[in-house]
Amino acid sequence: MRWFTAFIALVAFNVSANTLTLSSHPDTLAQNIRSSWQECDEQTWCEDKLAYYRGSYVAEATISQSSLEIELLSEFSTHQLSQLQLNLRSDGFSLQSVEVMGERFDISQQSSQHSVSEINASLVQFINRYPQTVARQLAWQSELWDAELISDGEIISLRFMSRD
Where does the record locate the signal sequence feature (predicted)? Predict the structure, then answer.
């Protein structure tokens, strides 16, 4: 419920639309955020209508000297959750682990014991054991970013953290 309150509060801002693309270096992206988003606190910028692929999100970015963290928020829908996973793959992210209702599927741990096709089949079976509306956390990684996709059946949060 806390996320939903934050989501509604951020929607109240009136800021021009932007598009998030993760192809540029985090330092370049941080400069673009500073120049086009609304500063909402010290080292924090907000955007009330940010496009990431075809979805529209409320966003908050925290920029420090050594890191950039961007969080996208939206209302939950199974379609939105699926689209975000496809978008992450399109941006070169690979899934590292999935946690659903306290159970964890660690892909790197599985890769030392099983083939890619076996891991994919086991992962699909693991995910399909639970309705998409139950709380889940998916950890992703790319060359420049770590990402955390969290869903609780009400709100979806996608957090990008620049890698050192």
Answer: 1-17
